[in-house]
User: Fold these one by one.
Assistant:
Number 1:
Amino acid sequence: MHETLTVILAGGMGSRLAPLTQDRAKPAVPFGGKYRIIDFTLSNCLHSGLRRILVLTQYKSHSLQKHLRDGWSIFNPELGEYITAVPPQMRKGETWYEGTADAIYQNLWLLTRSEAKYVVVLSGDHIYRMDYKPMLQQHKKTGADLTIACMKVPVEEASSFGVMDTDESRKIVSFQEKPAQPPTLADDPDKSLASMGIYIFSMDALTKALEDDALNERSSHDFGHDIIPRLIDGEKVYAYQFGSEEGRVSQDAYWRDVGTIDSFYQANMDLLNPVPPIDLYQEDWGIRSYERQRPPSRTVPSATGNQGISINSIVANGVVISGGSVQHSILSANVKVGDGATIQNSILFDEVKVGEHCQLKNCIIDKHVSVPDGTTIGFDAKLDRERFTISDQGVVVVPEGYIFS
């Protein structure tokens, strides 16, 4: 694996995830009570043996870079291992990153001086577990210039992805980015073969493709729109089926793009299923993160005699439920729940304080928010819309540090 360099794209604005991305990049958004979104990609790299990693940052990157420093300074540079955050440096002109391909093109000097033969290109904003090693082995075996990880998706959802056709050897013969009428699988007309945005390039092929693309004034400098379609005609481009690998990770085949409030909310709620669709409990494939030392969580009776309870919920360290009731919800570190408060189907980030007799339902509350006694959220859509963002499916989002009037 020492001949492989990994590049994680982590600079997107994540505007559809606002206001959670108001002051942080999308990969730095908290997830599941104790993680950040990027922890899933980084943990996959760690367990797959990929230990030379560049994280390309751009948009509001302070929170992300702090998280990388605090939680991921784990590799030994004397052994040639590193996780390095790389902000835009305008080495190829006077612009910021103008697309996924341009982000890597502007850092070609880092790739070429690494002397790597292969480049793994990943996104820092998806929730999944994957062993990249079998994909890299297939890439080498086929002599591919590019290998793309793919999965089967319902045809009605395929317009949100890059969609491909393959021949019997898994060589990709066509690729369309977000087509209005996606092609379907020959043996399953209800499914399409979709790109997961996980790529392995041979270094020479990537370098040539990026340099050619940079000269094309009509290009949007995007892998899906520009680089991949041009490579398919003349190069060896193969598909790799996600979930088929024989690596160490248990096969739950779960992958989610959490780019909207509703998809982010649902992916969190997935963790509360009796048997969650993503396995976070495989002992030798743990999801690593940074976590401050805090006391254990606890439920306690209030002065009025109400018992604090937590039902089918994820409750992080430092949480105190004092006479309140938490049901089917995710509470991050140091959340405090007051007497008589009820929280249902909700996600609370770090340091949220819920006052007495509050009622919260179907909401996401960002960090450092104190909810005053008697407040209701999630029950009156008209009132909520006057104060907060409401998603298409009715999830109410309270931004970080919000002060109630």
Number 2:
Amino acid sequence: MSTVAAFDPWNPSFVADPYPVYAELREAGRAHHFADTDQWLIPRHADVSALLRDRRLGRTYLHRFTHEEFGRTPPPAEHAPFHVLNDSGLLDLEAPDHTRIRRLVSKAFTPRTVEDLTPTVQRMADELVEELIADGGGDLIATVAEPLPVAVIAEMLGIPEADRPLLRPWSADICGMYELNPGDEAARRAVTASVEFSAYLRELIAARRGNPGDDLISALIEAHDEEDRLSEQEMVSTCVLLLNAGHEATVNTTGNGWWTLFRHPGQLAALRDRPRELLPSAIEELLRFDTPLQLFERWVLDDIEVGGTVIPRGSEVALLFGSANRDPARFDRPDVLDLSRADNPHLSFGAGIHYCLGAPLARIELAASFGALLRRAPGLRLVREPEWRPGYVIRGLRELLVEV
């Protein structure tokens, strides 16, 4: 079997542990064509880091080319609701639209604004952990990991508490389209969720326009109405992106992180003994060791060369975050979990103009939930080995059953 053939993102065994194959890919070269998705796999840290910052690549090509000019087939017409929603969000825009929207939204994610949220986030985390303790345990993902980031971003946006249970299913269905070669059923679910989520947000925006509050949706309306710099579609797409990106990664970092800690009892014991000292570096190490976003795609807008391989315009590269974060050329003993690791330039939040806007908020949420569990449930233990969900790009566990 060739090295690239061992890369099998639809195989449950590969999804459960892709890291040995990543090591083979890094050893075999810097760029590998993967015929199943017609993408170039980029496994090394230096290349992934550089290409994330390279403006010859983009999340979209539509700001410069039509589908036909770029040698690509337009998406099916029935997928339009998903693409209208997705293509107007920060994640899939390039300058100048990306610059304009990010400047507006980033006002809600300044270090001071996020820091002011810390007491609220900590209170929410403590309450969720108390419920887990009261039940004697349960599914850590369903009871703590999922509700916390959903509640936080919904609070920022001003989404009523009664409506929040709608958000996670919509988000999960939309994110299904970010997997490699999504099937017809995944597309159908994503389109349905896009229609429903967009309609819900348009109603909420209309209500906020008549009765503004101290929330991000009201702030976006003000930017739209007073300065005419944000269309309603951009507002809807921005809200959906913040809700999706604002909790998918945090949920999976929490689940994956605790599963990692349970498999490294010595490191978990050290963290329990010195939580205040170790927690900041522990969060960064858990993000590096088993990143929730394994792959990030970019279109090649102008020819590039990686390790002597010319990758022509019209190609797509798959930047392997999970592999880059285990690259021995950049990390000392990369396959060893070291919660006190100081030199840790992981790429789990990306880099360049698409660096994760919510990274400071994610770190506060992770510190709050891990800290609450370490303090309030010091005897937390695993009930049984978990199973991975089938997705590879956004990689996480189905559940994580624990006892306290």
Number 3:
Amino acid sequence: MEHIKIDLALDKTTLIPEKQQTAYLMIKLTAPEQVVESRPAQNLSFVIDRSGSMHGEKLDYTKKAVSFAVGHLDSQDHCSVVAFDDLVSLVVPSHKVENKDALKMAVKSIYSGSTTNLSGGLLMGFREVKLAYREKQINRVLLLTDGMANVGITDHDKLVAKARELAAGGVSLSTFGLGEDFEEDLLQAMAEAGGGNFYYIEAPEQIPGIFEQELSGLLSIAAQNLTVRVKPGSGVTVTGVLGYPFTSDNSINVSLPDIYNGETKILIMELSISPHSEGSHDLLNLELDYTDVRKNLALINLKAGLKVNFSTNSEEGPVENLEVIKQVELFRCAQVKEEAIWLADRGDYVGSRQVLQSRLNNIQAFNQMVCDSEINLEIEELKENLSFMSEIGYNKTSRKKMSYNAYRQRTGRGNRQQ
């Protein structure tokens, strides 16, 4: 059975000898596009906000989406359903999915209530997943809300820490934010700490499709617990990682979310390279550890290295690797959008427009060299961001769209919100 493929490349094909320089490393991880007869067992808890604001279409579509998901589970899977407003109700305790009709009827019976005890719902969902927890399956809580946490634990840092604690215990968390009143920064941070996905749902009718997207991913997970360790060679320092948090000791360590069959994840690192003599030098070594879901959760360790030529032979200097530069440009766009949001939240619309315009100018100049469809989409999106970046145009919905697109771009998840 194939392993994850590792490709390493710099933004330049050669480096200049005897010179201090900055380079960008692209780490590309590609899971095999493999159709398997069996899939990993699922142990899921659907945690549904039923506060007063969910009344009507929102709750109706949510119940329809959960019923759809249940229809794709079978007797090897476990499922529970939790509903919360100011109180938390265990609608369906964790059990094997054998009587789907009864489960769907229980979901249908959920009604709307009052305030939002998000932490209470999350903790009960976590408890139910833990009751049926086994290592050799997918253990995940799926949390959907349209509002702010205003009952129970409401402190953002504590909620994120709780999500991180869930993940450390083997239970991941995906979050779904619906409408314009939920706290996108909180739900994004919880999903990232919880090792799952965050989704922005602008309209109720989108709920079933987005649940399907999450479930399709869960049913096609190729590997979990991915950890990339990069050990720089002599005279090489990693000065930054674009898109993901990292830790450092003797190496740079980055944890990545689950990877699906056929999916590619890209990681960009900024390197500071001290003067090297002419010739070929080992720049760095990489190790990838992960749990292979297709191999009964076997622990896999892969190694790769990057050797680079330092040369003055080319009259025009080092040849640029446009694929790597493109990924750097796209990551920079995500960072700038987050900076623009930070400035706009503080009323500095002029500063926000300035950073967006500067990034737009840079990526337009780059696109003159490559004429790339993905870059063209990014240019149009930056123009749209500029169009609403004012006291009148910047509102809850435009902020959520911009934040969600930056999140998906930064974490390599694609599928921008249009």
Number 4:
Amino acid sequence: MELEGKVAIVTGASAGIGRAYALALAGAGATVVAAARSLGRAEDGVAPRGTLAEVVRAAQGLPGRVYAQVCDIEREADIARLMEQAAANFGRIDVLVNNAAIYPHYDTLGLTPDEWDLNMRVNVRGPYLAIRHAAPQMMRQGAGSIVNLTSLSALPTPRGSAAHEGLMVYGVSKAAVNRLTTYMAEELKPHGIAVNGLSPGGVLTDTWARVDPAAFAAAKETATGKPATPEVMGPALIYLAQQTAQTMTGQIVHTDQFRKSWP
């Protein structure tokens, strides 16, 4: 197993891409702490999709184990507790996947200051605080891999494209994540820690279907969207999870180009 004996933390792991990443890491042999805002409750004895309880159940039988922990990425105390308990319970933190994010659509000139601040707290401050609280343990180990989830929306896009409409603040937040990635890669390089950004591209998640049903339907119809499964989403993440500052760091890469233009 590529990650046997390693400990990984995935934020926003209860559904969609985060769920796929947690299960892929466990499939590669890692001990995974899957974090989200709530554990979720079983209905008629069965944990429904979209809950941490379901992710833990889905991981049964995999080489690694998945453990659930509640963490609201807006609360620094929750983030600190997530990292402290992972290090205390398992003795190390080898991989941090900053996946938790929100994906709202707004009228470009109509969003409120509170909406702007919410997006920046979740999508930018959250990953920064997760790095801030995980890095000391990785520094003590002299190695680690941090993967920040980003988006093509961070790049300049023509008006009228799916990556443009209603996504100004999301794009700005992911552009900030890109710079956070490259900055922290240099900051943590002397300690052997890799920091890379991964853009997953179009993934057919429940969140996309809810937020932008027209674009979701089009992506599904034209097969430009990928299913949020460990088999499809996992390989690129597993590769990045194995990196150190000596092998690959400070890169912003795209899932669809894995084994093509990178590594």
